[in-house]
Amino acid sequence: MSKRVLVAMSGGVDSSVAAWLLRQQGYDCTGVTMKLYDNDTAGRKGHTCCSLEDVEDARAVARRLGIPYHVFNFSEEFQESVLEKFARSYLAGTTPNPCIDCNRYVKFGALLHRAQVLGFDYIATGHYVRRVLDGSSGRWTLRKAADGDRDQSYVLASMTQGQLSRTLFPLGELTKPEVRHIAEAQGFCNARKHDSQDICFVPDGDFGAFLERYTQKPLPQGDILDRSGNILGRHRGAARYTLGQRKGLGVAAGSPLYVCGKSMADNTVTLGPEDALYTTALLAGDWVWGALPGLEEPLRVQAKVRYRQSDQWATASPAENGQVLLTFDQPQRAVTPGQAVVLYQGDTVLGGGTILRTL
Question: Which candidate in 29, 49, 200, 260 is catalytic?
Fold first, then answer.
């Protein structure tokens, strides 16, 4: 009897080709699109990842493949695990990564649980990443995709052993051009559909407007300071500003200035020169370990503190309460509390955590 797979189909080309590949491999597939929020939440009508257009594209591909298709409403889970955390974190002065939270709590949390209840053996997505069972340790490992330009291991590093054991990633060995070629050969309606680049519920990139809309409260204005505490101007709400930001500061200066600090308690934003953005160490918590069961002693690793960053050599050392002290060989720019830090050895994900502060 064929293994049953619930395929998360966003309406894009990647998840469509993932479903086709699994069908070719003999799996019994069912497609599903997750309804995560209303478009009013995103502050505009038209195309977002939960649009009617995406649902219709996913349904059309499922029909062409001859597989059942459903829409599951996970708006409550998304609201609690992603939207509320996003707003709470920004207002507290940290910068969360909602895509990582969505993967962690909705796609590989709520969706996997629903799949198990319905009797499916696996879920599958169109992420560019590989999973490999390590024969020596018996642990499932997450590994970078064959296409380094498309690798998404950074945003999936919080997957647990249980989640990895029940998830398939059919695109891990393919490149994006190969995926589009398959979609065109199969006559998929979305073969040339553009990839989504923005946070799905903030498609215009205006975090401040989203926060005001979501909380139904205006962001309070406050002082923009230099590193000596001198007032340089006024900001439009500290939550609107991110570390390393240069544009849109509204401050005239003889040399470039960047956001190098924020105080939510004082409602201030601090600017400084670019060299003020660099740090050599960070402390991270909330770890999910992949190839390792945990960190017992200092270990040489490669690390990423943002999605598109190249691997950076560092030493990871165990700290109190399961936290990790990460010391980089070279200073890193604009390391941001709330963002993810992911540790690698070669192509293998060792684990992922959340940046608490820089040191």
Answer: 200
Tell me the one-letter amino acid at 250.
Answer: G
102 part of the active site: yes
Write down the H helix ranges in 188-316. Answer: 207-215
Q: Distance from first CA to last CA of the chain, Å, rounded?
A: 55
φ, ψ of residue 159 to 5 degrees: the values are -70, 135
Which among 125, 163, 107, 106 is positioned nearest to 290, based on CA atoms? 163
Distance CA(99)–CA(211), nearest Å, equals 17
Instruction: Enumerate the β-bridge partners of residue 73.
Output: 35
Annotated catalytic residue: which of 29, 99, 102, 260?
Answer: 102
Instruction: Dihedral sign for Cα 40, 75, 201, 208, please.
Output: positive
Which residue carries 């820089």 as its tokens? 358
Q: Cα(226)–Cα(258) distance, rounded to whole angstroms?
A: 10
Domain ranges of the chain: 4-126+170-185, 219-272, 278-358
**Cα separation, 260 vs 249, whole angstroms:** 12
- Tokens at residue 242, please? 């991110």
**Amino acid sitting at position 297:** E
Distance between CA atoms of residues 127 and 105, nearest Å = 16
Give the largest Cα separation in the chain, rounded: 72
The strand pair at 122-124 and 167-168 is best described as: parallel
pLDDT along the chain (359 residues), means of 10: 94 96 98 87 54 91 97 96 95 94 96 98 98 96 96 97 98 97 96 82 88 95 97 96 94 94 97 97 98 97 96 98 98 97 98 97
The CATH class of the 278-358 domain is mainly beta
Report the top-level CATH class of 219-272: mainly beta
pLDDT of residue 46: 47
Fold type of domain 4-126+170-185 = Rossmann fold (3.40.50)
Alpha helices by DSSP H, listed for 147-270, are 161-165, 176-185, 207-215
Q: What is the pTM of this model?
A: 0.94
Q: Is 266 helix (H, G, I), strand (E, B) or coil?
A: coil
Q: Active site includes 260?
A: no
